[in-house]
Amino acid sequence: MFMTRSDTPRAEDSPAPTRKFAWDDYAGRRPPRGWPGSVPSPDSARFPQVAKGWLFTLAPARWQYEPVLHRFPALLARMVRFHLESGMAGAAVNCRTARSRLQNLIPESAVEEFIQACAEEYRRMQLLSLQVKLAESELKRVCDCRPPEKPGKKNGTKLRKTKRPR
Questions:
Q1: Is residue 124 assigned to a domain?
Q2: What sign does the dihedral 145-134-92-53 (CA atoms) show?
Q3: Which residues are CB-neighbours of 12 under 8 A, at least 6 positions away?
Q4: Does residue 164 fall inside a structural domain?
Q5: pTM across the whole model
Q6: Does residue 4 lie within any of the structural domains?
């Protein structure tokens, strides 16, 4: 029960609901190639929140309950990117091994459709991975992701302990 080629989503189709933003309203510059259409310019005050919402649509649902991913959107982007890259690896393995592993399970025509579906999924995840990389780099730039300074450190140098006399 595979979708026909005309029914399958293409890599150009956005996987998440999109709303086009006019970049000229924000920064007077065009978005980089591959920028997600539903995410506003990084110069927008709404960018971190909208980007975080978009990233959560790509993430597994249980990630919504992790407070650290809400506090650090760049970390969320990193995890989503790794999740997509592992999905790409799985789709590639399916494409390579489908003929040998599925030949006795399903008809040859279904194997070909399956390989085609895996290739489409690989391209879709590849596009999303590029979009997430772009958003991640801008989130790193816009959001302060540095850890708070630990006690005992001043200006990046460790305070030395003095030895007590015996």
A1: yes
A2: positive
A3: 127
A4: no
A5: 0.70
A6: no
